[in-house]
Structure formats: structure tokens, C-alpha cells
Write a structure and sequence with these properties.
Number of helices: 12
Strand content: under 5%
Number of strands: 0
Order of helices and strands: HHHHHHHHHHHH
Amino acid sequence: MSFVRTLATLAVGFAAAKGMQKVRDMGGMEALRTKMRGAGQPGGMADEIGTMAQKMGLPVQTEQLRGMFDAFGKTAAGASEQAEAGLGQMMGMAKVGAGALGGMIGGMVSGTPMGEVTEENARLMISAMIQAAKSDGEIDDAERQAILDQLDGSSEEEIAFVEAALAAPVDPVALAKDATDSSRGQIYSAALMAITVDTDAERNYLRQLAAALMLDDAKVASIHTGMGKPKL
């Protein structure tokens, strides 16, 4: 059982889905292949995911992450010329990379006091990600299934937790009640990475979450800048 692994899988899944949509808008499959070929290079996907993971308090090492993403990114870039098949393979490779990342982090902290804290924080961050994704409307059946499809290899307990989070109402105040001083910024970062911050509903949710977590404007602005997200 590892909620850290589940968190990493979902985080990469959200990031990949949004990134692929952005690349589609910018230039389609060839642009996507170019991005995947450079996944392990400085400034590539590995660094983007690493920055987000570090903001969420996960002890990732940049060089390890670059090596892992370099391998799966090049494989994904060579996927089928057929657009839908290619995108499906790339999403599959992203999921493999996410599982490896979660396993690496879990192995580093398993059986330690830090591991226990990290597991509890991971639960809160998973809830924050899902609440943020739901903030501009209910997640439909297709979106719900796409999220659950990321959880191959997860335990029944982990899948049940995600399903419960998907079914629960959006309530940033209730979520923040279990936050600790050290996890407040991490929880906000998890919510932020799951959305593009391009609707009023998303911005309103983030403001409510920041208030519930007692994060001041300077801290919120710093998190947005560090993750390359639009400011509120």
C-alpha cells in the first residue's frame, strides 16, 4: 500500500492530460513527440514534474527523474503515427513513469517516521487535486473513469479512497481541518497542479482553499510562480 505512489500516478496523469491537450492546441502530434523526446532534458517534463513534486513535499532527486523520463519519453515519442494510438501509448508511458516515481519515493521513506507523515499528507493532497478538478463542475463518467484508469496496480484501499474523494462534495474548509503547518503549502500546490486556473470557478476554489489553509497572499503568489501557474 502506498498513497504516495497513488499521488504520483494521479499527479502525472493530470499533468499529462492537460499537457497533451495544450500540445494538441499548439501543434498536434509532431509537437507532442518533440516534447516527449526532450522529457528528460533540463527544462523538460522531468523538471516540471520534479518541481511540482518538491512543492508537494516529496523527496525527488532531479537527476534520477531526468534519467527515468528520458527513457520513457523517447519510447513514447516513437509511438504509432496514428494519432489516437500514439496518444494512448504516450499516456500509458506517462502512467508507467508515474508508478516508477511513486515507487522510488515510497522506497525512500517506507518504514520511517517521514514515511508515515508523507502517507497522510498524500491522502490530503489526493483529495485536494480531485476537489480542484471538480471545482468548475461535476466530473462526468468519462472523466471519472479516466482518473481511475490511472490506478492500475493500486491497492483496493487506495482505489476506494480515490472513489470516495470523487464522490465527496467540494469542501475546502473540511479538507483544511486535517492540514498541519508543514503540509498547508503542499496541499495547495497539489490542488493547483490539477487545474489550469482558467475559469472563475477554479480561481474561487483556490481562494477558498488558501483562506481555509491560512495561506497569505505572498505565499500563494510564490506557489503559483514556482509552478508556472497564472496568479489569482
